[in-house]
UniProtKB/TrEMBL annotation:
It catalyses: 4-demethyl-7-[(3S)-3-amino-3-carboxypropyl]wyosine(37) in tRNA(Phe) + S-adenosyl-L-methionine = 7-[(3S)-3-amino-3-carboxypropyl]wyosine(37) in tRNA(Phe) + S-adenosyl-L-homocysteine + H(+). This is tRNA wybutosine-synthesizing protein 3 homolog. Keywords: Methyltransferase, S-adenosyl-L-methionine, Transferase, tRNA processing. Residues 18-201 form the tRNA wybutosine-synthesizing protein domain. Gene3D superfamilies: tRNA wybutosine-synthesizing-like (3.30.1960.10). The keyword Membrane does not apply. Pathway: tRNA modification; wybutosine-tRNA(Phe) biosynthesis. InterPro entries: tRNA_yW-synthesising, tRNA_yW-synthesising-like_sf.
Amino acid sequence: MTTLKINLDNYAKNFDVLKSQQLIIEDASRKSSIDFRIQPLCNAINNSENYFTTSSCSGRFIAFSQDEQFIKKNCEWIRVTHDPLNENEIQEFINAIESHKSSDISLKFEPFILHVCCRSLNDAKSMLEQCIASGYRNSGISLGSSKIILAVRSTQNLECPITSNGNLMVDLNYIRYICNLANEKFQENFERIERFYKNIEPCLNPEKIEKTKSKKELKAEQRLNKKIMFENLKSTGQLKKQERRDSEDSDKHESCLDEIDNLFSS
């Protein structure tokens, strides 16, 4: 975590302005759009009161050139995919590598990454806890001069040199192996994204969660009061036999409904 440079009082006042400005900025990534697999996640974050996204990638597998002439152009992507590869696509990766004129080519898998601007440090800490719980143990909070940024990151990266000085250093079976290994990482990556999306629900909708929690607590309190009253009436003989049976059946029915509610809310 960086040194605290931000004026938190002024930042809190300007957060909504920062958010509105960010959400109308044109996407500056090479793809120029949010990856469809994380579109619902990013929409949920941007529609929340205390967060908005500043950059994201659902995960990708690339063949890229490391030649000096290409590095000056921010590196050339020879082939890129944001989805697992089938056999035909693996062959297309191989063909692209064999036909490219670059002398140094590598294959690289990069997992999901997300940068989220947070309204307060507490909001950032709350989401960071869910990042860690979801498997993004390389995540962290950055406090700059104008924003509180949460970086959601994992350690699933994979990078393998394939050619050097124009010579293929591995056989084609090894390239296929790396492509299939990337497919496994894609699957794990997507499962982790789903887990993260589910885990941050309390951060995105704190009022809804609190309201649901209060309703359950109120219901439990009402049942307890009813049970105490029932036991008092029963002990003093003021409750008729049929009324006692009806009350017991009602308690069982309510308890059953609560168990069903808990089952579907878990």
